[in-house]
Write a structure and sequence with these properties.
Layout lengths: L4 E7 L3 H12 L2 E5 L3 E5 L6 E7 L12 E5 L3 H14 L5 E6 L2 E5 L8 E5 L11
Parallel strand pairs: 1-4, 5-8
Antiparallel strand pairs: 2-3, 3-4, 6-7, 7-8
Organism: Rhodovarius crocodyli
Protein name: VOC family protein
InterPro entries: Glyas_Bleomycin-R_OHBP_Dase
């Protein structure tokens, strides 16, 4: 088996806005779309992100442990820009931190079971040989 994609749940009422943010602000391309889901890929990535519409109204209290993660030289600043973009469109969002090198964006009304993480590239410098 070969890893293909990961799926995360987004509240149905904010589904299109989250998909728009990923496409317009982070350069994702839409691969496929159905009534209940969208598959996205960021140029240069070798894994896809599926967002699924969710009717869930309660949020997972431990969702900070489930992330869609990005590498960035300026992780806090990049997430703050996304939070401002969402907030300007009527979806409250905020940025928190796991450490001085790892940050997360949460939009509690939209992101059901995950947050968007950004971390310094040095944290993903794994000594893996292919």
């Amino acid at each position: 088996m070969r890893f293909n994609h990961i799926a995360q749940r987004v509240a149905a009422e904010h589904f299109d806005l989250i998909a728009e943010m990923l496409m317009t602000q982070l350069g994702f391309t839409q691969l496929r779309r159905t009534e209940r889901a969208i598959w996205l890929r960021q140029p240069g990535a070798n894994i896809d992100l599926q967002l699924s519409r969710s009717p869930t109204t309660n949020r997972d209290e431990d969702k900070l442990r489930s992330q869609v993660s990005f590498l960035s030289d300026t992780p806090r600043a990049d997430l703050e820009k996304l939070a401002e973009w969402l907030t300007a469109r009527g979806l409250p969002a905020g940025v928190g931190s796991y450490s001085p090198r790892e940050f997360y964006l949460d939009a509690p009304d939209a992101l059901v079971d995950f947050v968007i993480e950004a971390m310094l590239p040095e944290l993903a410098d794994y000594p893996i040989k292919e």
